[in-house]
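Running co-folding for uridine-5'-diphosphate.
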Amino acid sequence: MNHEQSKRILVTGGAGFLGSHLCEQLLAAGHDVICVDNFFTGSKANVSHMLGETRFELMRHDVTFPLYVEVDQIFNLACPASPIHYQHDPVQTTKTSVHGAINVLGLARRLGARIFQASTSEVYGDPRQHPQTEDYWGHVNPIGIRSCYDEGKRCAETLFFDYHRQHRLLIKVARIFNTYGPRMHPDDGRVVSNFIVQALKGVPLTLYGDGSQTRSFCYVDDLIDGIRRFMAAPDDLTGPINLGNPVEYTMIELTEKVLELTGSKSEIRHEPLPSDDPTRRCPDITLARSALGWEPQTPLDVGLKHTIDYFDELLRRE
Ligand code: NAD
Ligand code: UDP
């Protein structure tokens, strides 16, 4: 345990992929953690190893309804993040982002608590500026199949900045770019989990479109480190701030890496590119580097190996 002053901290979406890693890190730093989740995409299994800790509390709750707890800080991560999950019930996705933000912001205002928002690179849409800097306003379809997520997150950002201006709330808005690692949902359709699970099962890797679209992948430990540095940064650093790995790969390159690291003989099967799928995405992290002294440390090969080990064990247990 290090010597941070102990705080009571609420993590919404705490039983999800990123949330469970964040809860772990906060507990390890000596804080009391309340993890709130409705288990839509998260699971008790992700946090079961923390349930015995007296400083950890798990609450089943949907953030679209008001929440009454007493805490010093709030991390708002509740929202399905993978396209198949957020498109499953798009109305609920928008409600989670927008009503959820209103509820946690109201809570933060009552408590005078500092509040973090897990925003996303999706606020840039299918960007016309590359790499994306925080002052780019984006290129977003307001009525497409990704809009429930993209516009929901954009509206949440608006709410955070209006609470900041109108009510002087201490806000921290991070735009998170594609992050991967252990505890990703094996069926959530995201590219890293899909390719690894397919490779380990020896079934074809589903490459959408011609595979020339790019993403940049940040390992979960690096991302959580960035989030925590941001939350601890001076009050006037509100964001938005990009957190992600600036090393860009095409999806073809990702298939090659996964096949090499798993030693799999799986074939590649081309499938249609989903609509509104961004063609390029890569963060400019100049601000995070200078303001937080942060940049990702984990090379893709290393992070992929950890993730492959995780899924390998998970599949053996099935
Ligand atoms: P995830 O789906 O694993 O986690 C989301 C969690 O929120 C789940 O545990 C889910 O059950 C919970 N949840 C969903 N709706 C809820 C509701 N109405 N009330 C309470 N809980 C609810 O996804 P993740 O990858 O861990 O993403 C966490 C956050 O980070 C999300 O807000 C996401 O938009 C953001 N983000 C993630 C990435 C990424 O690459 N992982 C990138 C950009 C932004
Ligand atoms: N993708 C793919 N095969 C898959 C899943 C995704 O080729 O099995 C592609 C997808 O079309 C996109 C990229 O991988 O171009 C990243 O997709 P993901 O859903 O992981 O994240 P997002 O599109 O939200 O960045």
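Result summary
The pocket of uridine-5'-diphosphate (ligand 2) is lined by residues 82-83, 178, 189-191, 194, 206-208, 213, 215, 251, 273-274, 277 (CB under 6 Å).
The chain has a mean pLDDT of 96.
Job closed.
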